[in-house]
Amino acid sequence: MDFSGKISKNIVSADLVKKRGIIMVTLAKQIEEYLKSLLETSESNSIEISRNDLAQVFMCVPSQINYVLETRFNSNVGYLVETRRGGGGYIRIVKLGLENEDDLIQMLDKTSNNSINQLSAEKLLQRLVDEDLLTLREGLLLKAITDNNNLQLAAAEADLIRSKIIKTILVTLLREDM
Fold it and tell me: Would you tell me which CATH number, out of the four given (3.40.50.300, 3.20.20.105, 1.25.40.10, 3.30.56.130), belongs to the domain 3-95?
């Protein structure tokens, strides 16, 4: 189960829509959860599936599948996606683990001099929780600290401060004396 799923009792995400008093999960969230469940049961931490078959399962157009892959299965959140178009096309999704210190250093390099928006920060924190580098409680605390509502700054300033906070977290995780 992912970070957002663990906290969805307290926070309604953008993927949930309230209709007639019933909370419904969006199609994108359904596709995401389905693919993640396939990955969880895979011994190789990878899956290969036909884009058209997946679109048929969810009764949607293949471009909806592409949207989910681009927004929810990218390297920033710990996935490698390979696709082939034509002839039905296939999708191969590989779950990337944070195997060693080099992976954290790579994450640190990406955040060093860049600003990070709230969504990207949440995805990075989610990955750290998924990889057991942060506990759920630590992840929730850091999410609250880096939330736009709590930073109360202009977007550009908030993104820069958030980047500094995330960088400090990653440096702390790399310390060998702890």
Answer: 3.30.56.130
